[in-house]
Design a protein that fits this description.
621 residues; alpha/beta; Rossmann fold; 4 domains; 5-stranded parallel β-sheet; 27 helices; 6% strand; globular
Length: 621
């Protein structure tokens, strides 16, 4: 069997969305080729123009065997049956096992055939050929078992966190994982769900060195399929991202199956209710015995009640520990201070509903505003006069969360943020919940972490923003993000969006596409599809009722027009992609929005001389 026969059979199996030559070059380079094999060179080998020159790329006399197996398993998605079907057509096959159903045995035999093609010695078990007796197969399996595990899921967990008073919940997660592959932490925003999940992951890693943990922060609009498609693996996915979501989901399931290491995947802040299809898909995910899922959610997700851990408010003693931890650098040295103010702190905590995140924010106020707990309690009493004296948040519900947001808005007011700090928070309202890198943050906001009296450091110390010093990622707590979206000084406007988008484009040019293109795309997609699109969809929803409420329609259309100006730097091809993803091209035309190549069919007064034009039809008003 020649190298060309070998590669062509793999490609014929139709498992991969890549070209024959690209796959062959990647195979060589992943298994230790040096110097790097170029696609054109490998193509000549496949076409048999230089069939004996491959082994000069492996000066050490062999290939990286473990890497070969990992690579081939990944790219062919462990689809043994399809590969066997194609290799049955190759009469010169000597080593490939066409009968086995054992994945490891099959790929080991693929490696032997590859080594033979390159004129290298086969493995120590080279006496094994298809048709050998069972003992030889058992020996082969025993050897395979000694191979290092395949870490296909990427480890992406670095956050240190501190929790108080959650021992019972931690034990319950352990108990659930003894009988199930998933657990769901539920509770209102800011009550400590994420901290609990991260603390559990920390303990897991400390006690199990070989565990992989991947932490994915979700948007409120994310479905289960959305977050599954964001899973990261050691090697780049080779499937076409333009394929239907269901097909991409199948790829992800197979990739999880190829992982051998014990894995914990955290879906943090996954709040979208599960449909019947989502529940079915999730069951498939949780069939992977070595992969566990820990979900935090504000909603019960309609299923898995036996696997749910409701997070309630903490005891007063635990809340005191939290307050002291965030109030002082060395809490143990200030125990007497806290004890003397126990009564006033109890009153403060009750005033804000004993809410965990709110108490963390309160702990930062004395240093920020230069007042003690007695003075701050007076300010709270004055500023929260329109809210209940005690905010009850034990039970879940939108009304309760709205009350918490109102309390945090008052704390924002008391905090007296500077103009620079408000400007930063205005920008932070537009970033993805996963956060952005420090370098991208500095490009978007024009504020540096290193400058003297940095407003960024001030916001960090006050807990308004979070900065992970190990990964250099800047984030907002989801509840804080909701708060600043509802404050006049920081809420989203078309003007702030325009400036943000311009800064994003210039930031990419400044930082260089090579290193930051992926992050740029994530920020842009979140900005366009999670923030701007809902504004536009709100406009299209008014079209059907425009005769009943023409003033509402006029304002919605004006808002639409303002926001669409944000895309003045976007090329028409990108604009069409956006319109297609919005799935309301017909409504756009009803609203008077046209592409360039549609202008000949329209008469009227046009606005925006780039790629989209606004045609104000008098009949619409």
């Amino acid at each position: 069997m020649t190298f060309g026969d070998y590669v062509k059979a793999i490609i014929r199996a139709g498992i991969m969305s890549t070209t024959r030559d690209e796959f062959a070059a990647n195979l060589f380079n992943a298994t230790g080729a040096y110097p790097t094999a170029q696609t054109g060179t490998v193509k000549s080998w496949i076409d048999k123009k230089a069939p004996n020159s491959y082994n000069k790329y492996f000066s050490h006399g062999s290939v990286k065997e473990d890497e070969f197996i990992r690579f081939l398993m990944r790219w062919t998605q462990r689809d043994v049956e399809k590969l066997q079907t194609e290799f049955r057509k190759e009469t010169s096959n000597k080593y490939i096992d066409l009968e086995t159903t054992d994945v490891d045995v099959f790929y080991r035999s693929m490696l032997n055939q590859f080594l033979t093609i390159l004129k290298f010695p086969t493995l120590d078990d080279q006496s094994y050929h298809p048709g050998d007796t069972e003992p030889s197969k058992n020996e082969l399996k025993a050897e395979i078992a000694t191979l290092p595990p395949t870490p296909s899921v990427k480890h992406s967990f670095y956050m240190e966190t501190k929790v108080f008073g959650r021992d019972a919940e931690m034990e319950k997660i352990d108990a659930i994982f003894e009988n199930s592959n998933f657990a769901i932490i539920t509770g209102i925003g800011g009550i400590g769900k994420s901290s609990l999940a991260l603390a559990y992951a920390q303990n897991l890693i400390k006690n199990n060195d070989d565990y992989i943990v991947q932490h994915i922060v979700c948007c409120d609009t994310d479905t289960l399929n959305d977050v599954v498609l964001r899973l990261q693996f050691e090697y780049p996915s080779n499937f076409d991202k333009n394929e239907e979501a269901d097909i991409q989901f199948e790829h992800r399931v197979r990739e999880l199956q190829s992982s051998r290491k014990p894995t914990l995947i955290i879906f943090d802040n996954l709040n979208k209710q599960f449909t019947s299809k989502c529940r079915s898909n999730f069951r498939r995910l949780t069939e992977q015995g070595h992969v566990q899922f820990l979900i935090t959610s504000r909603t019960p997700l309609v299923f898995g009640k036996g696997c749910s851990i409701p997070v309630e408010q903490l005891s007063f003693e635990s809340l005191l520990e939290i307050y002291s931890y965030y109030r002082f650098k060395n809490p143990d040295k200030h125990k007497s201070y806290i004890f003397e103010r126990k009564d006033i702190l109890r009153e403060m905590f009750e005033r804000v509903g004993n809410h965990t995140l709110t108490i963390e924010m309160l702990a930062k106020l004395p240093t920020r505003v230069g007042q003690d707990e007695f003075e701050i309690n007076t300010l709270l009493a004055r500023n929260i006069k329109n809210l209940p004296a005690t905010v009850e948040i034990v039970k879940d519900g939108i009304g309760i969360e709205n009350t918490v947001i109102e309390v945090l808005k008052e704390i924002f007011s008391i905090s007296n943020l500077t103009d620079k700090e408000i400007d930063i928070m205005r920008n932070m309202a537009l970033i993805p919940p996963t956060g952005i890198s420090k370098r991208m943050f500095e490009c978007l906001t024009s504020y540096s972490f290193k400058e003297q009296d940095s407003p960024v450091e001030s916001l960090k110390k006050s807990s308004w923003i979070n900065v992970d010093e190990e990964t250099f990622i800047v984030t907002l707590h989801p509840v804080i993000a909701e708060v600043i979206k509802n404050i006049d000084e920081t809420k989203m406007t078309h003007e702030t969006c325009r400036i943000f988008f311009q800064n994003l484009l210039s930031g990419l040019n400044h930082l260089g596409k090579g290193n930051h293109l992926i992050e740029f795309n994530e920020i842009r997609d979140h900005f366009l599809f999670k923030l701007i699109m809902p504004v536009m969809e709100d406009f299209t929803s008014t079209i059907e009722t425009m005769e009943d409420n023409p003033e509402k329609f006029r304002l919605a259309q004006e808002n639409f027009s303002n926001y669409w100006q944000v895309f003045k730097d976007t090329e028409e091809e990108e604009a069409r992609r956006i319109a297609a993803r919005m799935n309301f091209e017909e409504e756009l035309r009803d609203a008077g929005v046209y592409f360039d190549d549609e202008l000949d069919e329209v008469e009227g007064d046009f606005h925006d001389e780039h790629f989209y034009y606004f045609y104000y039809n008098e009949d619409l008003f």
